[in-house]
Write a structure and sequence with these properties.
3 domains, about 450 residues, 14 helices, UDP-N-acetylmuramoyl-L-alanine:D-glutamate ligase, six-stranded mixed sheet, Protein-Tyrosine Phosphatase, Chain A
Length: about 450
């Protein structure tokens, strides 16, 4: 990086890209970029110094990003190869790298603590980052969600050797990393548009485990299909919420809106750990985060204090309305198993209450591959409002619509709704417990939805 004075990010408003934008702004580089549409995140980045445009016209690239000798170009795999800016930089001989490659470069000289898995990795890595940050050990962190404790997805330290990284399996991005230690939370098949088969998906995770450096370790969810392929000198530990393993929880106490448990490690017990975000799935997430912290010398009291003060990542089981008579929760869940976990957590928190789920499917390919599983998960609700598919990087697939999921949902109270008509539909409804889910752009509507729910 020593020859570069500026960076241009294509897809700057993505959650993973934005952490890198913030990192290089903090290091004093000039940073510009492109994204498709404005968002609260791009507005925040602009206020921090990013020069961003929402038109891919080459004419809008600033002059200081037009010298291949001094500008590094970074892109996300969600950007099509035909993007005008990407084509220009490649034709002009700029060094163009994927986000994951750059992340690998800037973290290879630190002790990378890499959190991977189909689901759970954002919350687990965020918990770990908060634990380390709250201890004298500290850490740097590149996260896949905005951590509410810091209102950022980037944490910097001027003394810590550790970097917490959310390791994304999409497009095999996590193969660019150099883990000192790694966590694998789940390997339920996903991104089959990239991998094709479950076997290829599992092979990608096995390769990821082979990248762990000798002297480090792998912490893996007990019972998942993955067969690790670690190098000699890498220790393997298992974890679970309450199914045993090297690290697990015991003496779990749930009540009065709190969850408290004892964290059990091979070398001792940390008693009375209270979750700052008290939902069932966070017991498992906390065990994994605390396992990595304990393996790297974080003290018991520091772990206990950090877990109690952890506020969670935005869009991860985030409360927008919390009243006795009405609740609204938003969650980023976009895989069938994530939907099931979120719905079960709501059911446990509010037994006997009517649950309405608004779900926006994400990607045509994922809808095609998992329509029956999505329907099974959504059928756990009392009422379902199903939106049209958010395409993200994809072109439509003939015959693939939300109807594929809708037809298989078994709860009686279900309906299809266009996104642009959702707010009007919500005004007509009386909700008890409302859960919004999806990885698309439903989050843009959350303030308005909350206002409507609050006014009822």
């Amino acid at each position: 990086m020593k020859n570069y004075t500026s960076l241009y990010f294509i897809g700057a408003g993505g959650i993973g890209m934005s952490a890198l934008v913030r990192y290089f702004l903090a290091k004093g580089y000039r940073v510009a970029g492109y994204d498709r549409t404005p968002s609260p995140l791009t507005e925040a980045l602009q206020s921090e110094g990013l020069e961003i445009v929402y038109d891919e016209s080459v004419a809008l690239i600033p002059d200081y990003c037009r010298d291949a000798a001094t500008t590094l170009v970074v892109y996300t795999p969600a950007i099509p190869a035909t993007h005008a800016g990407l084509v220009y930089f490649r034709e002009q001989g700029f060094k163009v790298v994927k986000r994951a490659e750059l992340l690998g470069l800037i973290t290879q000289s630190s002790k990378g603590l890499c959190f991977s898995g189909t689901h759970g990795k954002t919350t687990t890595s965020s918990m770990a980052a908060h634990i380390f940050h709250e201890s004298p050990i500290g850490c740097n962190a590149f996260l896949g969600g905005i951590l509410r404790n810091y209102n950022s997805n980037l944490i910097l330290s001027d003394h810590s050797p550790f970097t917490v990284i959310e390791a994304d399996e999409y497009d095999r991005s996590f193969h660019w990393l150099h883990p000192y230690m790694a966590v694998v939370t789940a390997t339920d098949p996903d991104h089959l548009d990239i991998y094709g088969t479950e076997e290829a998906y599992l092979e990608s995770f096995a390769h990821f485990t082979s990248l762990i450096q000798p002297g480090g370790c792998l912490v893996i969810k007990k019972g998942i299909k993955l067969v690790p392929r670690v190098q000699e000198g890498v220790k393997v530990y298992t974890y679970s919420a309450c199914d045993g393993g090297d690290f697990h929880a015991e003496n779990i106490r749930v009540g009065n809106g709190t969850i408290v448990f004892d964290f059990v490690a091979p070398d001792g017990v940390v008693a009375d750990v209270e979750l700052g975000v008290p939902v069932d799935i966070n017991i498992e997430n906390a065990v994994a985060a605390m396992a990595i912290a304990r393996l790297n010398g974080v003290a018991d009291d520091d772990m206990r204090r950090a877990m109690a003060s952890f506020k969670g990542a935005k869009r991860r089981f985030e409360f927008w309305v919390k009243r006795n008579d009405r609740v609204m929760i938003d969650d980023y869940a976009h895989h069938p198993d994530e939907l099931k976990a979120s719905i079960r957590s709501v059911r446990a928190l509010y037994p006997g209450r009517k649950l309405t789920v608004i779900f926006q499917p994400h990607l045509y390919s994922r809808t095609r591959d998992f329509a029956p599983q999505f329907a099974e998960a959504l059928s756990m609700a009392n009422q379902v409002i199903l939106l049209d598919i958010y395409p993200a990087r994809e072109q439509p697939i003939p015959g693939v619509t939300s109807q594929l999921i809708f037809d298989k949902i078994t709860c009686r109270d279900k309906e299809l709704c266009l996104r642009e008509k959702l707010l009007e539909r919500i005004k007509e409804c009386n909700f008890d417990i409302l859960l919004t889910m999806g990885a698309g752009d439903i989050d843009r509507l959350l303030p308005q939805i909350a206002s409507i729910v609050e006014a009822k």
